[in-house]
Design a protein that fits this description.
This protein is mainly α. The protein is 60% helix and 0% strand.
């Protein structure tokens, strides 16, 4: 679900500021420069395995699985706002 960075900044100034700039645009990263410098380099971890490692890391320590109820509520409100009203929420943001 797309939520504009400005809308995120409205509900959480610090989080929103951190998204503005280079994180506000979609990017594609590649490793062609690395492969040119190190011809034998080959990425060997597929996305599904890397994602599983991230989940396992969080699951390994209960402190890493803590939910911030305030942030959870902010995210829920953004999802509700942009899911139910879509274009109207964007128009409201820019008015």
């Amino acid at each position: 679900m797309h939520v504009p960075s400005d809308a995120i900044r409205e509900v959480d100034e610090r989080w929103g500021r951190s998204l503005l700039g280079d994180k506000a645009h979609s990017l594609v990263f590649d490793n062609s420069k690395l492969r040119a410098l190190v011809p034998g380099f080959m990425a060997t971890t597929p996305f599904f395995r890397g994602a599983r490692e991230i989940v396992d890391w969080h699951d390994a320590d209960p402190a890493r699985r803590r939910i911030d109820p305030d942030m959870d509520a902010r995210i829920d409100s953004l999802v509700d706002r942009f899911r139910t009203s879509g274009r109207a929420a964007l128009d409201e943001l820019h008015s």
